[in-house]
């Protein structure tokens, strides 16, 4: 099963994500986002950050946006490109995860400004879950 | 992905098309698209027209949801969208009508250098600019600021840079809002925005942001060009950047708040990215106060970038920037929401005008313009792609129909992924160099993404706004040296 694929958007970057479970979907989305940001292939899982989101999300789509936006915030303030994601808890008002990565000088491709609400969607599919996210770049 | 809305388009004249308000249930007003048949072929390929219709849902929207000829698919608003709402009539402000890069904008710096005199030094100049200006993803600058200074920047905008010696008082006169819009509140800004903004003053960023050395290669309006001190063969510099991580965070913070406002205020919009709140509500007032802080951060940023640009010129030509006549012609925002006075059915009203990838274009005699532009109208700066042209236009009275707004650039036509597949960065750099254009970027990938053919031809875009009369051509520039993120 494909983890994610990029799709055409005139000004920005579209990402379609797949996962057997919601947790897998969230991990694949994070991988896809950092693949758009940098060449992640050779980035080591050197530094660790604990993520904790306690904001109440209305639904899975909003929770996905909160998760990606949280990672983007840590990336933009620490410059760490994250490549390993371990999600411990995943509910609408509690997301806990351990994420690992490293600074990636010379491997950066794109600046993602934000995760937009435009066409944001998480839905059930026959294989599990599917999601759509558009990043502002 | 072609737009279904296209089927509903009605031609008004050669350069204007109407999306009637019965196209989608929920539209409060018509959509009006400025484009000719040629540009429309590109515009109908993506979802931009659908977004023009979606913007027409905003409560209190006045006259129409407008789209400039450079429109393309954005998120929420199309890029190239203009919407004014009436606060006295339930009018809303929508952070999606400004975007994440609050006060992304452009400034044009004049010089008295003749192309013929300096043409052999363009490569060296481009290299010096590239070294002087921190660029690229998450770039950090030499101009480091403390939290206290960041709070000052939010209120003082470009005045902060000038007080630090990064410019002169005349620069402020030549900046929209004199470089600092009033009503900014540092307390309306989150900790996270401070954190993302603190290392990024005086940095260019990435993507479509650039500094470009240009030569004026055609004059359309000699009288206005004279008044601006511009003539054919002179060198000018264009700077395009915004509020960096600071603005992105402000927008994100308030999108969340506004999402909750939809239910609270009974607002019906077809896209969550269009979340909005009535202008007079506490949520909207807080957003506007934070947005203005980000706008001031951006003006200060472009002022710092201009300072670094002047330094690079001084280093290259061994003369002071004053000797080289490097005065600021004008600086204008193209992602912003502002309270402005406009006539609606003959009556003056204060409206909340959103410009998302659109430029304010005030006519001659407008009270907001500095004295030097009272006779000519406001300079309107239109960057093109890095291989073709850019333009300087001037505001007109006819643009009252678009709340004094016009286009902001060429507008993308190919997605970044499609551009990366279609163009090779190394070949592009060589081809551009063969045309006499030196390009330097922190990321090779950016060059392919920003390939000239990924954009509409700015000449077509400008022809439409000129013929439609919503701004007028003054002169055209062509690129010589480009630095990108």
Jot down its keywords.
heterodimer; A: 137 residues; alpha+beta; Archease, Possible Chaperone, Chain: A, domain 1; 5-stranded antiparallel sheet; 26% helix; globular; B: 485 residues; 8-stranded mixed sheet; 7-stranded mixed sheet; 25% strand
Structure description:
The complex is a heterodimer of chains A (137) and B (485). Chain A has 137 residues and is of the alpha+beta class. In chain A, 26% of the residues lie in helices and 41% in strands. In chain A, a hairpin with a 5-residue loop joins strand 1 (4-7) and strand 2. In chain A, 46% of the residues are buried. The mean pLDDT of chain A is 95. The radius of gyration of chain B is 21 Å and the shape is globular. In chain B, strands 7, 8, 9, 11, 15, 16, 18 and 19 form an eight-stranded mixed beta sheet that branches. In chain B, strands 1-2-3-4-5-13-12 form a seven-stranded mixed beta sheet, with helices on both faces. In chain B, strands 6-10 form a two-stranded antiparallel ribbon. In chain B, helix 4 crosses helix 11, helix 8 (191-197) runs antiparallel to helix 10 and helix 10 packs antiparallel against helix 11 (282-317). The mean pLDDT of chain B is 94. In chain B, strand 1 (10-13) and strand 2 form a beta hairpin. With 485 residues, chain B is an alpha+beta fold. The A-B interface holds A 6, 8-13, 37, 58, 62, 69, 73, 76-77, 79, 108-111, 113-114, 116-120, 134, 136-137 and B 1, 46, 48, 72-76, 79, 96, 99-101, 136-138, 192, 195-196, 205-207, 245, 248-249, 251-252, 255, 259, 271-273, 275, 412-418, 443, 445, 449, 485.
